[in-house]
């Protein structure tokens, strides 16, 4: 039975987030969310640039880890 494209993507992301390397992305995202939330509570109008940098940083980390996994899988 042929698997659909969506099932393959879901399996890939679940394995990525549950794996050892993906755990770093989850930790970075969780730390970013907590720090961003604290910044918003303390200084809501001043926190937006910091929150944007934190979100972009965690997304970049996730992208780097994904590329690393893809490279290892292709070898």
SSE pattern, N- to C-terminal: HHH
What structural class do the secondary elements suggest? Answer: mainly alpha
How many domains, in number, for the residues? 1
Number of β-strand runs:
0
Q: What is the helix content?
A: over 70%
How many DSSP H or I helices?
3
Rg over alpha carbons: 16 Å
**Large-scale geometry:** elongated
Question: What proportion strand?
Answer: under 5%
Q: Mean of the pLDDT scores?
A: 68
Terminal CA distance: 27 Å
Contiguous low-pLDDT stretches (5 residues minimum) are none
The largest sheet, given as strand count, sense and whether it forms a barrel, is: none
Protein described:
Helix content is 85%, strand content 0%. The protein has 75 residues and is mainly alpha-helical. It has one domain (19-74). Helix 1 crosses helix 2 and helix 2 (20-42) runs antiparallel to helix 3. Keywords: Membrane, Transmembrane, Transmembrane helix. The chain crosses the membrane at residues 21-41, 47-66.
Give me a quick take on this structure.
The protein has 75 residues and is mainly alpha-helical.
Topology readout:
Elements: H1 5-18, H2 20-42, H3 48-74
Helix pairs in contact: 1-2, 2-3
What tags apply to this protein structure?
3 helices, 75 residues, elongated
